[in-house]
Amino acid sequence: MPDQPVAAITGAASGIGRALAVFYAKRGIRSVVGTYPGDPHDPEQTARLVGENGGTCVIQELDVRQTTSVEAFAQRAISAFGRLDYMIANAGILRHAPVTDLSDERWTDMMEVDLTGVLRTLRAGASRISSGGAMVAISSIAGGVYGWEEHAHYAAAKAGVLGLVRSLAVELAPGGVRVNAIIPGLIETPQSLDPVNSLGPDGLRRAGQDIPWGRVGRPEEVASVIAFLTSQDANYVTGQAIVVDGGLTVKMRS
């Protein structure tokens, strides 16, 4: 229906992006599912889950390192549904690299996706979303709150996302567009389950024991907070970074 809101979600073939597309489907919000061609996860699975939950989506290949690709992704919302209300910058990569092995090339690759890719995504949304719309970028507990050894490039990019969001919130507020960030803690996603570049299953299980809530988070639990930030229930919330971590960052170490 023409009056149903439309969300464009980068990195929606799995994890938080997929969970958000499904969450939106349950609430009658249509979506553009952004997927990187090299991603091993199947965006058709996202589309199937969206359909099973009464929603509608279209799949759009997307490389956030390329401005033309990001612009085509945002424009797909207009061509498919006639509008764009919410832009979610969720696409990201995670790579392990001790600083002594952190070449200029590896640093640049990370920034191109996890920081400049977020800029490209929010910029594309800003030129298409009208008053009443909202954008959310995904930061991380690494960089957004804590440091993370042997992941300096990742943490730096995620910290940069927060500055970007705050600045765009001020810039876009006169036009009625809100911009916020989510800082996920330890969430069980394909990225965090990677034992080479992240904690892996065993590491997540051990880390969960130190979280006040007693476990690591689920993608759906992050998706629901993103959906809140894009809803009218958060109409007076902009320029903020909400931590979704089960209490990890407020726990006093024994």
Considering the chains and any ligands shown, give keywords for the structure:
254 residues, globular, 9 helices, 41% helix, alpha/beta
Brief synopsis:
The protein has 254 residues and is an alpha/beta fold. It has helices at 15-26, 43-52, 67-81, 104-114, 116-126, 141-144, 152-172, 200-208, 219-230, and strands spanning 6-9, 30-35, 57-61, 86-89, 134-138, 178-184, 241-244.
What does this 3D model show about the protein?
- The protein is of the alpha/beta class and 254 residues long.
- Helices cover 41% and strands 14% of the residues.
- It has nine helices and seven strands.
- It has helices at 15-26, 43-52, 67-81, 104-114, 116-126, 141-144, 152-172, 200-208, 219-230, and strands at 6-9, 30-35, 57-61, 86-89, 134-138, 178-184, 241-244.
- Strands 3-2-1-4-5-6-7 form a seven-stranded parallel sheet, sandwiched between helices.
- Helix 1 packs parallel to helix 2 (43-52).
- It is globular, with a radius of gyration of 17 Å.
- The model has no long low-confidence stretch (mean pLDDT 95).
